[in-house]
Amino acid sequence: MFGSNGRLNNRRTILNAAGIALISAALSVLVLLFIPRDDPAVSAFRQALSQFVMPIIRILDLPGQGIDNAIESLKSYQSLKFENEQLKADLERLRGVEAALIRQELLGERYRNLLAMPLDDRISFLGARVIADTSSAFARTILADAGAAQDVMVGQAVMGPRGFVGRVVTVGSETSRILLSIDFNSHIPVVIGKDRVRGVLSGGNQEQPRIDFLPKNARVRENDTVLTSGDGGQIPAGLLVGFIDANGLVTLAQDPNELHVVRIVSARQPQPPEELIGLPRDLQN
Amino acid sequence: MFNTDISKIDPFNIILACLFVVSIGASKNVFVAASGVEIGFYFLFLFFWGIRSEGILAPILVFLFGLLQDALTGAALGTWPLVFSVFFALSSSQVQVIRQAATGGFLFIFVILVSVSYGLILATSFMFYRDEIDLSSLFWSFTLTAIIIPTLGLFIQRVLPLDSDRRTAL
Hints:
The structure holds 2 protein chains of 2 kinds. Chain A is of the alpha+beta class. Chain A has helices spanning 4-34, 40-78, 80-115, 281-284, and strands at residues 123-133, 141-144, 157-159, 164-171, 176-180, 187-192, 197-202, 210-212, 225-228, 240-244, 250-252, 261-267. In chain A, a hairpin with a 7-residue loop joins strand 7 (197-202) and strand 8 (210-212). Chain A starts with a helix and ends with a helix. Chain B is an all-alpha fold. Chain B has a single domain (6-169), classed as Arp2/3 complex 21 kDa subunit ARPC3. The longest helix of chain B has 26 residues, at 103-128. Chain B is globular, with a radius of gyration of 16 Å. Chains A and B meet through helix 1 and helix 2 of A and helix 1, helix 3, helix 4, helix 6 and helix 7 of B.
């Protein structure tokens, strides 16, 4: 196939390719050693690169979306009869609940009027589509197609249709990266159950996050509701996170595997009292 | 010193490069769930690309695509360029062995290279991430990649048998 010179040249060019690849590998080690992972410039570079390839990923997503939709249609068709029966039973049950709910609503309205308490209008939602699931062994993140152009900001809470899923960690002009609550680096202040026990929801890259920093002798029971506590001011209080299971772990209300659309929660920060506004920021708290 | 003649760029290599980068993007949509487990089809295209390519352009592109993979997966910058570059260097330096191997041997070499790559990811993670990496998803990603792709290869070989001459042409 080759003459002796040709074979020699071929071997040399192959060695060139392998040699350059090894130089690249050495360069990669230097990058690993000297560029810190959580540097803001690195985050900006990641976001810019992700945004650059988004058009490709969006196109690649089309067949996947089609398959998803087809599977969903098939599933919904199969479970239609079962769901219908269940809905009828639920309807009967809910008729009784409805009357109790109306009574509670009237009672609540009376109490609100008594206290003259304003409704919480600080929270607003922005819908966004999940355009890529960038989860790996290293991090659990997703990309949504809303960014700085839609006033998305770092730190904002993100909800799925059924509950809290995570928070925004980087924002590009048209996309934002969302760190899921199951990620190692996710730590969300929460309150648990009727006793409103405070703790921190910590991800472990597993399906179920755990609760850290529970007070001593705290009573956390199976099926207790886990809600965001609002501590720290970035994530609004009262967002449903999930439920405590028999092992003390949290079963998330929103399964991160089933995310197609998300709602980014925008909460206006409460202003400090007027007499404190002129003071340095540290003294306002 | 290096082969930098653009006229020698092989269209098949361009296709492999495109498939490689597309498989990086596609793995973020079709194959992966929030579980973090993915099938590394990109290793397959990188394997063939390594076998075929000559000159300096391909390893540089491999490095850049590795950075892209880092950006998408949230890994520390340098992790995937290191893995891809080592994988590429091994496959391109063992061309003669790979070309002369039978189908079983050919796929066995692929599995070894995939094992080395995941071993490298593991070593990198222990050195740079401490306990922050999900070992179970890494293990399942490796297992699925090392089983499914060679199985597909054997299946394709049964359906469309490639004789050694045609495989050498790869």
